[in-house]
Amino acid sequence: GAVVSQHPSWVICKSGTSVKIECRSLDFQATTMFWYRQFPKQSLMLMATSNEGSKATYEQGVEKDKFLINHASLTLSTLTVTSAHPEDSSFYICSAIHRGTGTEAFFGQGTRLTVV
Amino acid sequence: AQKITQTQPGMFVQEKEAVTLDCTYDTSDQSYGLFWYKQPSSGEMIFLIYQGSYDEQNATEGRYSLNFQKARKSANLVISASQLGDSAMYFCAMREVGYSTLTFGKGTMLLVSP
Fold first, then answer.
1. A58 has a chain B CB within 8 A of its CB
2. CA of A30 to nearest chain B CA: how many angstroms apart?
3. A107/B47 Cβ within 8 A
4. How far apart are the first and last CA of chain B?
5. Is A11 on the interface with B (CB under 8 A)?
6. E strand spans, B30-87
């Protein structure tokens, strides 16, 4: 299957700093990428939909100024958690839809963010 | 109302036995897609199997098969010959026509014992 690479897989940062997470589709072009957040023992919660060359669409309740999404190319989307606080600690995972098939959504490995 | 319902928070199965993980969905669309993902403790989401609403045959991928009953709006995942490595969280998801996003169920934790 198609490969989506997410980096870093884990990060610890100090409260007040910003953290950038990258999501790359390695062997295909992704028209759309998604960012999810997952709390322990819960399902994935969609945060935003990212389309190449346009502004991201955020889900209700997600602060766009706090979670900055940039989709610079058909293979790269980034999520920046700005001024991180301990409550932002979570598992963040991205997915991408294959431009050709449009059916499957392939996921990155996820990023475990801990804010201390 | 929940669009994807997984009623089994946890399931136990012995190695080499088959197990069925339940999933029901709710949509008024005629065209939609159903997905199953496996999430081991490492956190990655592993795509297992896909069923389109117009697919007449049940999808199969190796030891995974999807028991698709359209009239009942159910899309159960069947894992045959369970292995210890199958222990993980399993999520059912749906994509409706016109929406690029996936809607996930709450998941079922599967534990395979020797």
1. no
2. 12
3. yes
4. 38
5. no
6. 32-39, 46-52, 60-61, 64-69, 74-79
| pLDDT tens digit sequence for A8-48 | 999 999 999 999 999 999 988 887 899 999 998 899 999 99
Partners of A25 on chain B (C-beta within 8 Å) are none
Nearest 10 degrees: Cα torsion B74, A110, B41, A3: 70
Whether chain B has a CB inside 8 Å of the CB on A93: the answer is yes
Q: Which chain B residues are within 8 Å of A108, Cβ to Cβ?
A: 44
Report the alpha-carbon distance of residue B69 to residue A87 in Å, rounded. 41
The residue assigned the tokens 């996003």 is: B101
Could you tell me which of B89, B38, B88 has the C-alpha nearest to residue B62?
A: B38
* Contact map slice: B 49-108 vs A, CB within 8 A: 50, 52, 91, 95, 100-102, 104-107
B36 touches chain A (CB under 8 A): no
Summarised one tens digit per residue, pLDDT across range A74-112 is 899 999 999 999 999 999 999 998 766 666 778 999 999
CA dihedral B76, B34, B29, A55 (to 10 degrees): 150
Counted residue by residue, chain A has a size of 116
